[in-house]
Design a protein that fits this description.
With 428 residues, the chain is of the alpha+beta class. The chain has 16 helices and eight strands. It has a six-stranded mixed beta sheet with strand order 3-2-4-5-6-7. A two-stranded antiparallel ribbon has the order 1-8.
Amino acid sequence: MLGDFREVILDYFMEYTDLLCQELIPAAGCTEPIALAYAAAEAAVLLPGKAKSALVRSSVNLIKNAKSVLVPGTNGRHGIPISVAMGLVIAKPECKLEILRASNETYIQEAVALVESDAIEVELIPGVVGFYVDLIVRDEEDNEAEIIVKNEHTNVVLKRLNDNVKFNKAPSQNDEIKVDLSFEKIMAYVKSVNLATVSEIIEKQIDLNMQIAEEGMENSWGSNMGKISEEINDQSIMSKCMAYASAGSDARMAGCNMPVVINSGSGNQGISVSVPVIVYAREKEYEHEKLLRALLLSNLLALYQKQSIGRLSAYCGAVTSSCAAVAGIAFLDGQSDQVIAETYVNGATQISGMVCDGAKASCAGKINLALYSAFLGYQQALSKNSYRPGHGIIGQDIDRTIASIGRIAKKGMHDTDLCIVDEMLNND
């Protein structure tokens, strides 16, 4: 019996470690434009000749996230056409989500020429939600390559050259990653896992995400939300956490080419789930092992919530990641599992409903607000003033609350997503 129990524990520990290894990967720039560049690079290497045109057919969610954000390595340009054009001319799919780090002036000139010749068309696929792009590219000899990426930013499910299907992933393999996550299991994993199995990816998250946060604080990027936040708030540790996370987002949204370790397919979520925890641990001079375990908690809690929401939705991911980060901070402070759970529930439920209107400068402000809400939720839990189950969308425990938020975000906010995109397109 005891042997069977240990085997179950080992199985889900390995599953959680595999999930972290798959999700916590580096990306340079906003992940939706990068994913488009990656898909274009996959198409470019299929073609015998040089790409001359492209048709981008995608979901409403992808168009929303890729429309306004500045694209790294393009000298301050933004939008879907330049993202695709850069991928076509760089043509290095092996670089995955760091493909735009290979940019140079020659590539930029070639990509701009493609965009300015109206060679790249963009179409919305009605009724398709989540992450989906169907990219059809032609070369100078009229060969046609098609690449379909679905659910995950680098999850290619179809490669076709003319009438020859080179690769076709079975439908059962196209689903998003689903792992049996629960708060109790996450806490057991965080407290007991051998750090040697996960320290490399967490250390990389610490190094890369703090580098871009420091860049955002030291130089002028985007809306400079980090510096503004620092100026109007006090010099508390909470304010510093909010400022550095916002600064990292601002640099990234403004086209900074520094890579970050993402969470749930998002660099902003990767920054906001980690930077506040790192800043807090350093200010309090906590042991490094404790920081690593706190980051395991914040990352897994964010992944848990996003698993029920989906990669892209009308629900702002800063809420999930920021509340998960402050739950990690409660862990750093040695709080009970109950206080950690209440911190997340308090923060997430009082700011749920913040909409995602794509990747751009205001993401930094949303991270700032979400972190404030999460810290408020932490103080509520500490002072025994947490919201009670049954109040609004709060379930009987953290797991049922996470499920409730997921249903609201994925199903209830579908029409909201369509309306947001309509407004974005009408505001050009």
